[in-house]
Specification:
The protein is 54% helix and 13% strand. The chain is an alpha/beta fold. Helix 2 packs across helix 5, helix 3 crosses helix 12 and helix 5 packs across helix 7.
């Protein structure tokens, strides 16, 4: 009978790998259950948007909602390719992009640093020049990063006869290019000061971020004669809760943890178009120089998390 001992399960103490496997399995089961519940809720929702309801419009955040990663970082890559700045500045852009994609939230200091860098880079350049370059950069770095699911939501509003606007902290010139390429109505974005068609290196007011987005949507709705209670807004970030709270149909798209929690508490609609494979990509740029920096940053952050 001893020879059959291998058939009898043996009690073994849990190893680090078995604990990891168990935790991963439990997390996968929990997420699967949540996704099933969200899918069931989506199937029960009434038809939306309402066809022919022109008193309604849709407002979409850009970064990580419509497009993977942050538009300003992709724009920075394009400017580097065109010799607007040096390698050390590129490294900073790569670090900020890697952090944004890994953390899944907008870090105020990183975003401010990115904006300051972009303003200093474009100072003295003509607005028309940057608009032309923006078209090229969209094709090079942004077009293949549009989330198909979010794009379909925007198209549903357009098909219903409604206007669709991007609302983003990205420069309005970049946002306008993206909106036009996607066939959207237009864009609200951060406005950089220019005199006689030349950038001064300063902003007009402040970045269109957080509460400023809500104020922009409110002002546009008033000018357009829209009923905000009939409008929809879409975002991935808890920073956009003020904008989402303005409308009658708020959506959390690819939400960060804080927004997901808030959306569930408020019974807002949730959509998550990310997959494990896409998340693992971490938006690492294809260019070898940027890829090495961003990849190294990602690895360093992952390792530090494992050691905690």
């Amino acid at each position: 009978m001893a020879a059959l001992g291998w058939l009898t399960p043996r009690r073994r103490s849990a190893t680090a790998r078995s604990v990891l496997a168990g935790e991963a399995s439990a997390e996968a089961a929990r997420k699967s259950s949540e996704e099933a519940q969200e899918t069931a809720r989506a199937e029960e929702e009434p038809a939306f948007p309402v066809i022919g309801d022109t008193s309604a419009a849709a407002f979409f955040d850009l970064d990580n909602t419509v497009m993977q990663g942050a538009a300003i970082f992709h724009f920075g890559r394009g400017l580097y390719k065109r010799k607007f700045f040096e390698t050390r500045d590129l490294a900073r852009f790569a670090w900020q992009q890697a952090w944004f994609r890994l953390a899944g939230v907008e870090d105020p200091e990183h975003m401010q640093d990115a904006r300051d860098s972009a303003l200093s880079i474009v100072k003295g350049h003509r607005v028309a020049e940057l608009q032309t370059i923006g078209e090229e950069i969209y094709d090079e770095y942004m077009a293949d990063r549009i989330w198909p699911g979010t794009r379909a939501l925007a198209q549903a509003h357009l098909d219903a006869g409604q206007k669709v606007w991007l609302v983003t902290a990205a420069p309005v010139e970049i946002a306008t290019v993206i909106a036009r390429r996607l066939g959207l109505t237009g864009a609200l974005g951060t406005v950089a000061e220019s005199v006689d068609g030349v950038y001064t290196g300063r902003l007009v007011g402040e970045p269109l971020h957080g509460p400023a987005k809500a104020e922009a949507v409110r002002a546009l709705a008033s000018a357009e004669g829209l009923d905000l209670a009939r409008c929809a807004a879409y975002s991935d970030s808890h920073n956009d809760i003020p904008m989402l709270s303005l409308v009658g149909h708020p959506y959390a798209i690819n939400p960060d943890a804080k927004l997901r929690k808030h959306a569930r508490e408020k019974d807002w609609r949730l959509r998550d178009y990310r997959t494990g494979r896409k998340a693992a990509r971490v938006g690492i740029p294809a260019a070898a120089g940027v890829g090495a920096v961003a990849g190294g940053t990602a690895a360093a952050i992952a390792l530090s998390r494992r050691r905690r």
